[in-house]
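Lab channel / #folding
Pinned by the channel admin:
"Please post every new chain as: sequence first, then the structure tokens as a reply. Keep commentary short and put observations after the output so the thread stays searchable."

First post following the new format, from NK:
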Amino acid sequence: VERSPLLTNVTWLHVPKCGSSFARLVFRGACGAVPANKTHVDFVEASAMHPIIQLHCKSAFHRFQSWHAALSPSEASRCGRGLVCVTTLRTTWKRVESGFHHNLHDCQWMQDAHRLNQDYGPKYGGPSFYKTYTEDHVRLYASCVSTCMTRMLTGLPCGRCSGTLSRAQAARCVERVWSDAFSGIEASAGEGGTAALNISDYVRFASRTRSKRADPLHDPDPPPDTRRAMRTLSRFAFVGLLDNWSWTVHQFGRRFGVPLLPSDYKVLRAGSKSRSSSPRQKMAEQTLRAFSFAADDALVSATSDSLGVHRRLQSQQAQMRIAWLEIPHYSEGYYDALQQPLSRLGHRVDELRAPTQRGFGPGVLATKLRGMDLAVVGFGWFPQEPGSGPFTRLHEFQRSCAASHRVRLEAAGEFESTTRRACLCGTVPLVVI
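Reply from TO:
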């Protein structure tokens, strides 16, 4: 570990089924950790990193844990005011689908009822439940965790009917979840397999482990406070989306100066999900797609809007000016293969061919690419390519560009303006094929 002043006092809100792989980036960002392997980092649980944190970067984190604790009211009030709060979210129905296939994640009383809780051990529950579950189970689980992201941002556990409740409160809470799940439709309790249970069974499992000592005035299942969740989320330093993982990784690295590795763009701990095409699996997906997740969907929509211009450009089909950089070589067909469909989409593609194998001279591209939305590098620019000859540098895209110009131009008193004109790294995106 090399300690770098990148991030301090970080609070990571770990929402279930929303990208545990994000912990790697947060850890490297806060601790300035440089892995021995410069291209790949395996998935490691956040809790396993605590010895390194205690030894090298105690001040880096306020909270960094694998389990799914809600953001406390105190933490929520300090986000953006002393705490650097970060999290990742996910399209709601996909998050719920992943949790459903992961032992009914975060709905404890359903786990207990179907013996899917880890306390029962691997020989109980799982195989029989997932062979016999019905649409009723999918709907009830969806109702239990439908507002998970909203609840965690407002100090509540992910699943409904959690926490210290009296037996009477737990029973009322489960009845409310049941009502929300089957509002307007008739539950088919007992149909479709032996795993089906009726509401009295769930109330029994929810009540039997609850304390008799609880605040009788406490509402066991308050309505989702979307406005409060939105206000809290707006103070987060970073919110990513698992559905747009590559862009999330790119934005986080760019915003906080975290060196990125190829493995960062992979979700190294893929969550549980349905990989079967059986009618039962298709039914589960269709049920969740049609289910209403209004509160959490609003958070995902707000995050999607804030993640970057690229999503708006994609939705608007914006026309781009694209520069295709080439050096002399024998004829290839891939330029036409890409240029033609790009042109049909309304983009303008200009081929810029270097005069020699050594490429463009310093400063040439700074003029030619000014105003371009994108630059594409084709064949021959790198020594790995057969017949590429001497290594050809793209001077304006080198990381050392600003530093090299500083030495040469500072004495002339024109460093600031000339450097901005000469260097394109961070100004014009470069795609390497």
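NK: The first strand starts at residue 10 and ends at 13.
TO: also worth noting, The CA atoms of residues 362 and 371 lie 18 Å apart.
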